[in-house]
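Self-study notes.
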Amino acid sequence: MRQMCCKQPARNSWWSDGRPRPSSVKPAISNPASCSLLLGFLLTSHTDSMASDANTQTLRSFLDYLRVERGSAKLTIAAYESDLAQFKEFLEKRKQNLIGARREHVRAYIQELFSNQLDGRSVGRKLSAIRHLYRHLLLDGKIDKDPTLNIDLPKQWKVLPKALSRDEVGAMLVETPPRNDTARGQALALRDHAMLELLYAGGVRVSEVADACLEDLKLEMGYILVRGKGDKERMVPLGVPAQQALQRYLKSGREVMAKERGSPLLFLGTGGRRLTRQRVWQLVGKAGLASGLPSGRHVSPHMLRHSCATHMVENGADLRTVQTILGHADISTTQIYTHVALDRLKSVYAKHHPRAKAKTG
């Protein structure tokens, strides 16, 4: 670097044979200020590169932990990766790395999210991802203090799950005639009806339906084995209508869909291909419109899941049972369904509690 800032000695511009010598020496930088700026730029670029590499390694290690040790689902890992990448970018703009981040950095990031008109639920999700990262780093001995301590989640309005009424679900589950009289049209009708029955009867997630395997279905015993979040398995009981719909699909529909492909999946698309989550959403939405629901009310697989839980609580099911069927890791997630049974709770209280009614006379 010092050589660049000093003038090179003059060189003869002609070869000994009289030919002009090529000018191979670049003009020297004689301005000390220019040398300082160049040196500062090189040092800054090197520091930024090191910080970015360190952050990338930190995130890669955390994602490996989620994948290998916790067995998190692919969608969960992808959500963590996306949220933490944004926080990483925020820190790098401030010449900071993930390991050295402090509480004021986390607070500033949250403030920036709100200033960008992000809603409270989204901010809360991003903060939760950051919190999980630093808990992992703390337990792993990479940091001495968690920068997310004493940072509360943004206040959020509790959004109650949307559910269909029993009559609306009943209208959706009425068997519709096939789209055409071909074997393929009849097979599609049987598949779609069986899928709707399973979504409502078992309260299963859309990914659990798309990933369900034929060997997981135990119709003779009245249940299906599904793999939920974190690759956790659970047994989901099935009612008689769901069992019958699945039986008809297996007998007359699945073989037509499978053709010559030996797929292990329960529900198949055209040509025996795997059904995507987006395709299942489309099929449920079309079934909602066909049942006569208003066009502005979009029915989704998750709405059928909520309807399953809501109707069970309305009929007196205890929360532990609902939690087991839905596959909730924490019962606090299931408790949101207690609002639908408030009228029933009041009536039971009024009937059985000795102090529920004022004494007369």
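Second protein, same conventions, sequence then structure:
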Amino acid sequence: MIELIVVVTILGLLASVVAPNLDGLSPKYRLRSGARTIGQNISWARSLGGGVGGEYVIQYNLSENTFTIVLPPQEDEDPDLEIDERQTMGTITVPDGIEISRIMHPDGGSEESGVVDILLDEYGTTGSHIVLLTNEENNSIAIYFEAIIGSIQYMPEDEAEFPRW
């Protein structure tokens, strides 16, 4: 009986290590994984802004396929400190084969290159945007962040648009 319990435990540990790594095997699942990573980090930055207070920034670098959560200025720093001079929580790279192809703004504008800064204020009223990800098979997914209610929605690129009230 003890041997059986040990074998089941070992198999469970192996499955818990191997199963999460299967996301990277298929371009479709890498795309979904990249979208989930971005969505979770947007939600996290928004909750930090509301909980801790201060203006957090999500900084997308479209040419390098990375994004960074930029912290608000510290108490001993100038409150008007430039975004590029602030501390960050580290840069996150989207999975291989995935590209941040475009950032869409509520005013109808969009950006397809360079560095894009999305401000998330402490009241949760700013920062709505849509991130479009594309993989090497030209599949795409849109991550829609609605700042006021704090929701993240995942949808096909052709359905990605801001609601018109």
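Instructor comment on the second fold: The mean pLDDT is 87.
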